[in-house]
Write a structure and sequence with these properties.
Elements (H helix, E strand, L loop, with lengths): L2 H25 L8 E2 L2 H14 L16 E2 L9 H9 L2 E7 L6 H7 L5 H9 L5 H4 L5 E7 L4 E11 L3 E9 L5 E9 L1 E10 L4 H7 L4 H11 L13 E11 L2 E15 L2 E11 L2 E5 L24 H4 L6 E2 L5 E4 L5 E3 L4 E8 L5 E6 L4 E8 L1 E2 L8 E2 L4 E4 L10 E8 L2 E3 L17 H18 L13
Antiparallel strand pairs: 1-2, 3-4, 4-5, 5-6, 6-7, 8-9, 9-10, 10-11, 11-12, 13-14, 14-22, 15-21, 16-17, 16-20, 17-18, 18-22, 19-21, 22-23
The structure holds zinc ion (ZN).
The site of zinc ion has 5 residues, from loops.
């Protein structure tokens, strides 16, 4: 089905269903008639998603649309009173409850609106059905009952299976009125979502506004932290992202990986794509196949929803190359400092005016130095291996320092250089035999971004690295 058709269909369905809802509401004052309806909210959400993305033909596959199905049972609109009565007698309810700490079977069933001694007896005695009583607190349980509380079916997910699916316990009454219990594996449906955001104040304000889940927002930082200092975003910066989500029964169960993104910062466009290298390995690469992990972080200071909060705004980060051959990052005492690339500790201890200082050796004669720390992280000793992003110490004011800040030096053959003025050589790009597969992945993402971009104007230039 084409996207436009899908929308027409959606709109039509919603209209019809809305009439049903109104009809039902008039028929029966009992609030919240359960219904199997693609609700207004769902349509609104779908329209919002398109709105956030910007252009109409966004996703190549219409099945990617985040349509939320609300599972509720609704009597069909009846034409004759006789029919209406029969339908009213057969009303069903689907209720969902989370298992609470200290729940008993009785208290759980009561909240679900189940008033059924036969069902209770079955759950207590059947070896499979008893699994319900072992399900952990926080799990969702759904039950369908008749008007007077007789159980028709009950389902609870009992085990997560990574991104593949859930093992679900299903207890159901068959056509003879007998209960049966079974464990079924329900596959997750993987969807690809696309979102855009504009920077007005900070990254997290923009991601919240674009309804991007927090876990995905954090991945945006990870994806671009070797290109962008997120403390120094500007109004007018923007981003487009593609990420995966996993769904079950019309509900989003979890978010997955940020697959690709582009970020325009201070007039430069950076693009990155996740490339699966097999055997559980993978990483982010620029569109020309260079590993972003093999570059240096733009800011050794940790950027997170917490660190970018109010307290940081009182201590603006200058991050400017200074006469004294370093970059000073003003920050509150105790802010975590991270290794800006993989390497080996060359020095960890007091060194003259630098106070508490760590020096890390990288590749190609590159090294980085971090001064004035209040505290060096415990395991940082000469010879220790560190990974990019690993916390090596905390901001302080030791040595010749007038206030808490990080003094950061980027050195080439032991000589301090302005990291923004030289093009750093990556230690590794993708192997030549990986490139054809990589180009296919990158081209797909480039195509998606091209669809998102027209509204932005075509002036943006790619500064891939
Ligand atoms: Zn300094």
């Amino acid at each position: 089905m084409r996207l436009s058709d899908k929308f027409r269909h959606l709109a039509a369905t919603t209209q019809v269903k809305a009439q049903e809802v109104i009809h039902s509401a008039v028929q029966n004052v009992r609030s919240m008639r359960p219904s199997r309806v693609i609700s207004f909210t769902a349509l609104f959400f779908a329209v919002c998603a398109v709105g956030a993305v910007g252009v109409a033909p966004l996703a190549p596959d219409a099945s990617n649309l985040p349509v939320k199905t609300i599972l509720q049972e609704l009597p069909l609109p009846s034409l004759e009173e006789q029919m209406a009565k029969i339908i009213l007698q057969q009303q069903h309810f689907i209720k969902e409850e989370k298992i609470q700490r200290g729940d008993s079977l009785a208290s759980l069933l009561q909240r679900l609106g189940v008033d059924d001694a036969k069902a209770t007896g079955f759950i207590k005695s059947d070896s499979i059905a008893r699994g319900l009583m072992q399900a952990r607190a926080g799990k969702s349980v759904r039950a369908k009952t008749t008007d007077d509380g007789l159980l028709e079916w009950l389902r609870v997910s009992v085990q997560d299976d990574g991104n593949k699916g859930n093992k679900t316990l299903l207890i159901a009454r068959d056509e003879h009125g007998e209960f049966k219990a079974e464990e079924i594996t329900e596959q997750f449906e993987r969807r690809i979502e696309m979102r855009s955001g504009d920077i007005q104040s900070s990254l997290y304000v923009a991601t919240d506004k674009a309804l991007i889940p927090g876990a995905v927002a954090d991945q945006i930082v990870k994806m671009f932290e070797t290109n962008i200092d997120f403390y120094k975003l500007q109004r007018g910066d923007y981003f487009n992202i593609v990420y995966e989500t996993f769904w079950q029964n019309g509900e989003m169960v979890k978010t997955g990986r940020l697959l690709s993104g582009e970020f325009r910062n201070a007039g430069k466009l950076f693009q990155a794509v996740w490339f699966d290298e097999g055997a559980g390995e993978g990483g982010y690469y620029s569109f020309d196949g260079k590993s972003l992990k093999k570059a240096f972080l733009k800011s050794p200071l940790e950027f997170s929803r917490i660190s970018s909060g109010f307290s940081m705004r009182l201590h603006p980060i200058s991050g400017k190359w200074k006469q004294h051959k370093g970059i000073d990052f003003a920050a509150v005492t105790g802010t975590p400092i991270r290794a800006s690339a993989d390497g080996t500790i060359d020095h960890a201890g007091v060194q003259g005016g630098y106070g508490n200082m760590v020096i890390i050796k990288h590749w190609n004669g590159y090294s980085t130095a971090y001064g004035h720390m209040s505290r060096i992280a415990p395991s940082m000793r000469k010879g220790a291996r560190v990974m990019q992003g690993e916390v090596i110490g905390y901001v302080g004011s030791t040595g010749w320092s007038t206030g808490p800040h990080l003094h950061y030096e980027f050195r080439v053959n032991n000589e301090a250089r302005d990291p923004n003025s030289i093009s750093v050589q990556s230690a590794a790009a993708l192997a030549a035999n990986e490139m054809p597969r990589f180009r296919t992945v990158a081209a797909d993402m480039e195509h998606r971004f091209a669809l998102l971009r027209p509204e932005r104007g075509s002036a943006a230039r790619v500064a891939a690295r």
